[in-house]
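Section 5.1 Outputs to date
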Amino acid sequence: MTVNGQIEENGVVLVVAGFIPASEKRGTRNAVEFNIIGGVIERSVENTIVVKNRSHDISEAPVLDLNGEAVEERGDALKGKAAAILYRNGQILSVKIFPLEQVED
């Protein structure tokens, strides 16, 4: 649903949240876990980036820039840029790469 051109996501969250207690009563878990890890890319080699001292294999995930276009750069070209890594149930769904703005004194 859109309101004034913006996507309304609250209805989806409430619908999903409504299913979780019912499914737990039956002994099954249908919950989906999302995690976002963000930070500066400390190291980058081939299809692996290190953010917050944790290695992330990005070979199977789309790596996108701010405009949603594919980032073909790998290795040292990614070092020092900011990244937001979206996980779903422990698997990487996508990676967003952001340039860091330099602050001048």
